[in-house]
Amino acid sequence: MQVIVNKTRLTLIQGEITRQATDAIVNAANSSLMGGGGVDGAIHRAGGPAILEECKKIVARQGRLPTGKAVITTGGELKARHVIHTVGPIWHGGDRGEADLLASAYRESLTLAVTSSLKTISFPSISTGAYGYPVDSAAEVALQTVIKFLEKEVSLQEVVFVLFDNRTCEVYIEELERLLSKSA
Ligand code: ADP
Question: What is the pTM of this model?
Answer without folding.
Answer: 0.98
